[in-house]
Design goal:
Chain lengths: 113, 111
Amino acid sequence: EPEVTQTPSHQVTQMGQEVILRCVPISNHLYFYWYRQILGQKVEFLVSFYNNEISEKSEIFDDQFSVERPDGSNFTLKIRSTKLEDSAMYFCASSTANTDTQYFGPGTRLTVL
Amino acid sequence: QKEVEQDPGPLSVPEGAIVSLNCTYSNSAFQYFMWYRQYSRKGPELLMYTYSSGNKEDGRFTAQVDKSSKYISLFIRDSQPSDSATYLCAMSAGGGFKTIFGAGTRLFVKA
């Protein structure tokens, strides 16, 4: 069964450093998403991406964040200058064009020290 | 009022019990309603997906959506210890729109 994959599973970084989280969505999906979940809190939407551009973003997704689909398979989330409060699980998800059944990856745990 | 409200629990039941999990919402634009199961430190796993109002059954799981009341439910029959997890309701207005999650209900099924 096809699945969303994410790398790395755990990323530790120093405050102020840039990080790139990587995702490989399900191959025939056209919508891509990033969510985050701070430990013990709810899953929060960050951004959705379709046709090589951002279709929607939340207030969390400020200028420190960017997304890119550098090739036909990868989807990345970049945080330019990490803050302590960026520590969270980051989940990538993907869906087909006509439904909103989003399939989630296993997540990347980001720890900012 | 929050867009999606879900009682975080915890909910503890004996093995074999029928479990009822619920969410309410305020945004009448929501058309797609999902239930995800999340184990500790793992990604959400899609359990059930319903479009608009009605019931949907899959094995031991039944999802109900009542759009007139803005209320959705997930029933688990013959609950098993392996069902112990956090159950997240989620909903969106349509393809490509953001999905809004409830806080999740922690379920413990005791053997």
